[in-house]
Amino acid sequence: MDVSCGISFSIRRVSDSHARNVLWALGGTLAATVIIFASLGSIQNQCRFEDPQLLAGITGFSGAVLGCKKLYRYYWFITVLSFVTAAYGAWTTARGFLVSSRGAVLGLIVIANLLTINMTDAFLSIVDVPKFQDGPARDRARTMIAGCIITAFFQAVSIILVGLEPNAVAPAEILEAVPKSAPETTLVELASAPQPAPQPTAAPEAPAPAPAAEPAPAAADVEAPVAQAEAAPVAAAPVAAAPEAESAVAVEVQ
C-alpha cells in the first residue's frame, strides 16, 4: 500500500502597495514567532526539577509549584496564537479578502499583541533568577526576550497597516479642487431635520375681478360750467342792448 502526501503553495505578486506592506509586516511577525518557538523549546528542554521552585511566584508564572510541562504551557498557547493569527492575516491579504475580513484580522492581531507583551514582561522577570544569570540558560532567556519584543513590534505595525483604509483618505489636491457649495450643506440639514406632518390644503380660490377703472372726467365736462357761467353775461348784453338799437333806429326814421 503506497501512501503519498504532498503540500504545494504558490506566491503571486500583489499589485496593491497597501497589501504588500501588510504582507511584509505579517511576514516579520511570522519570522519573529519562529524565534520564540525555538527559544521557548530550548528553555523548556533544559527545565530541571529545581525550576518550578525557582519560578514559583515570579511575575507571569503561577504561584503554585508546577511541573516543567505545565510551567510554560500558557506561553506555548500565546506563541501558537501569534503564529496562526499572522498566517491567517497574510493569507487573507494575499487572496484579496482583507477589505471584507478587516475586523476579524485586526481583532485577532490586537489580542495576540497584548498577550505577547505580557509574555515579554514574564521573561524579563526571570532574568533575575540565579539559573538564568549565566551560561546557556541566560542566552536562551535573552533570545526569548528578543523574539518577544520583535514579535510585539511587528504586530503593532500590522495593527496600524491593517486598520488603515487608503481608499478612505483623499489626497489634499483633490480636496482643494472640489468647491465647497452651501446648498449641499443646506440639503443635508434639511434631510436630517424632522419633516412636519402635511397639512390639508384648501382649494384655491378664484381670483377676484379687478375693479374697473373709473373714467377720468373729461376736460370739456369740467370746463363746461365755467364756460357757461362766463358766457351768460356776454349773452345777456346783446339782449339788453337790442331795445337801444331799435330806439336809435326809430329816432333816425322819424
Determine the fraction of residues in helical runs and give it as a percent range.
Answer: 55-70%
What sort of overall outline do the alpha carbons produce when their principal axes are compared? elongated
Oligomeric form of this entry?
A: single chain
How would you classify the helix and strand content by structural class?
A: mainly alpha
What is the average of the pLDDT values?
Answer: 76
Low-confidence stretches: 233-254
Total strand count, please? 0
Structure report:
With 254 residues, the chain is an all-alpha fold. It has a domain at 17-169. The chain is built from 9 helices and no strands. The chain is elongated, with a radius of gyration of 54 Å. The termini are far apart. The model is unreliable at 233-254 (pLDDT under 50).
Quick tags:
transmembrane helix, mainly alpha, 254 residues, transmembrane, disordered C terminus, 0% strand, membrane
SSE layout and pairing:
Elements: H1 17-45, H2 51-55, H3 68-71, H4 73-94, H5 102-125, H6 135-163, H7 172-177, H8 182-192, H9 219-253
Structure described in brief:
With 254 residues, the protein is mostly helical.
